[in-house]
Specification:
About 35% of the residues lie in helices and about 15% in strands. The chain has about 210 residues and is an alpha/beta fold. Strands 2-1-3-6-4-5 form a six-stranded mixed β-sheet. α2 packs across α3 and α4 packs across α5. The longest helix has 17 residues. InterPro entries: Ribosomal_uL4, Ribosomal_uL4-like, Ribosomal_uL4_dom_sf.
Length: about 210
């Protein structure tokens, strides 16, 4: 699959980059994508929720009323879950929501997500660029030139670029990542995927294994 390369002004450079069919033109596996996104979201959960159970409540252990003759149910402790202020039955405890997926499945999920973007014509390849200094205005100009200023966009760089990253950090609808940080969730969460020329080779190297 060949895709035209544009510059940061949105103009065609006259060059085309060859996208590997093994990465950008496979048969998408929806279940692999589902599992990888599910794992990503599960890992975002802190799992610090906690409710006090009966043994953790501070209170008197005195029997609150006599066993018989009251006409009501027996009650032995003010800490009982049936009373207000008592412990909670089977309350939430701190836990880790993460689960394991093998590398081959995660690789398949990312390739499936990239293929979906390519099929939807939501993939743009731009030549490698840099800024002299971190400026949000410069990054906004790039978004406008590429026609993605009103869309949620994800820029993938071949190598870390501090000026480009800092220029995008204040924008809620755009994110800049390196090829090693790319995830299935981030690909699908963006309406437009912008790859730099340097990132294409890196992605194919990582995902073609």
């Amino acid at each position: 699959m060949k895709v035209a390369v544009v510059d940061i002004n949105g103009k065609d450079t006259g060059r085309k980059v060859e996208l590997s069919d093994a990465v950008f033109a496979i048969e998408p596996n929806d279940h692999a994508v589902y599992l990888d996104v599910k794992q990503y979201l599960a890992n975002q959960r802190q799992g610090t929720h906690k409710a006090k159970e009966r043994a953790e409540i501070v209170g008197s252990t005195r029997k609150i009323k006599k066993q018989k003759g009251t006409g009501t149910a027996r009650a032995g402790s003010i800490k009982s879950p049936i009373f207000r202020g008592g412990g909670r039955i089977f309350g939430p405890r701190p836990r880790n929501y993460g689960f394991k997926l093998n590398k081959n499945l995660k690789r398949l999920a990312r390739k499936s997500a990239l293929t979906m973007k390519a099929n939807d014509k939501s993939l743009i390849v731009v030549e490698d660029f840099d800024f002299d200094a971190p400026k949000t205005k410069n990054f906004l100009d790039v978004l406008k030139s590429l026609g993605v200023e009103d869309k949620k966009s994800l820029f993938v760089l071949g190598n870390a670029n501090k000026n480009v990253y800092l220029s995008s950090r204040n924008l809620k609808t755009s994110e800049v990542v390196k090829t090693s940080e790319l995830s299935t969730y981030k690909i699908l969460n963006a309406k437009s995927l912008v790859l730099t020329e340097g990132s294409v080779e890196g992605l194919e190297e990582i995902l073609s294994k």
